[in-house]
Amino acid sequence: MAEQHREESGASVLDKISDKLHGHGGGSSSSSDSDDERSSATAAVKAKIYRLFGREKSVHSILGGGKPADLFLWRNKRISGGVLAGATAIWLLFEVMDYHLLTLLCHCLILTLAILFLWSNATTFINKSPPNIPEVKIPEDLAVNVARSLRYEINRGLASLREIGQGHDLKKFLIVIAGLWILSVLGSCCNFLTLSYIVFMVLYTVPVLYEKHEDKVDAFGEKAMVELKKYYAIFDEKCLSKIPKGPLKDKKQH
């Protein structure tokens, strides 16, 4: 009887342990299922969030990634600050102090060559090794890649201008005309160097500020786009639809 009672008590203990194990297993599976549901829900919410200009990538990826994107997004504050200080110093030299580019280049070359020449000749008197001047060359691959990139961008711009000139896309025509008009107004207000410095400052500050406050900016941009579409629809209905469009080319059916 005692042995039978021991066997029954042992079996009950094993049953309790197995029930607990099954209970934990079910909890883990249910928790994993809930995690999957939450991740899918967050992914769906992120997909529905409006992004400015319909972007799907991060700001870092849009800027090309790598070191240039790190520079514009201030990943390394020392390097970015140094570039900003250098650009500001160049603008102050040419715009505020009325320095000329050719004069600046000649003065820099004169100073550099004078220092190297005196240093090389002074080493013979003080018994020290002359300065090691590195040989600087432009790599052929780099020059070819830059030329190809410029050729591709110029050809794409010319193709876009040709398409606009043919009168196929009225919306693109109005956007280009507005952009050129804004550039002409800015060009009449300041010279090319100041305009370049303004563009540089915009590229150097807007992306990093947008990355920090992208949710607020995207929400405001969504509201603005809705209002712009409303006004454009009214303008299209009253004005643009009445303008005769150019002849469209018949598309070939393959």
TrEMBL record:
<keyword id="KW-1133">Transmembrane helix</keyword>
<dbReference type="GO" id="GO:0009617">
    <property type="term" value="P:response to bacterium"/>
</dbReference>
<keyword id="KW-0812">Transmembrane</keyword>
<feature type="transmembrane region" description="Helical">
    <location>
        <begin position="173"/>
        <end position="206"/>
    </location>
</feature>
<dbReference type="InterPro" id="IPR045064">
    <property type="entry name" value="Reticulon-like"/>
</dbReference>
<dbReference type="Pfam" id="PF02453">
    <property type="entry name" value="Reticulon"/>
</dbReference>
<keyword id="KW-0256">Endoplasmic reticulum</keyword>
<protein>
    <recommendedName>
        <fullName>Reticulon-like protein</fullName>
    </recommendedName>
</protein>
<feature type="transmembrane region" description="Helical">
    <location>
        <begin position="78"/>
        <end position="94"/>
    </location>
</feature>
<feature type="transmembrane region" description="Helical">
    <location>
        <begin position="100"/>
        <end position="119"/>
    </location>
</feature>
<dbReference type="InterPro" id="IPR003388">
    <property type="entry name" value="Reticulon"/>
</dbReference>
<feature type="domain" description="Reticulon">
    <location>
        <begin position="68"/>
        <end position="253"/>
    </location>
</feature>
<keyword id="KW-0472">Membrane</keyword>
<dbReference type="GO" id="GO:0005789">
    <property type="term" value="C:endoplasmic reticulum membrane"/>
</dbReference>
<feature type="region of interest" description="Disordered">
    <location>
        <begin position="17"/>
        <end position="38"/>
    </location>
</feature>
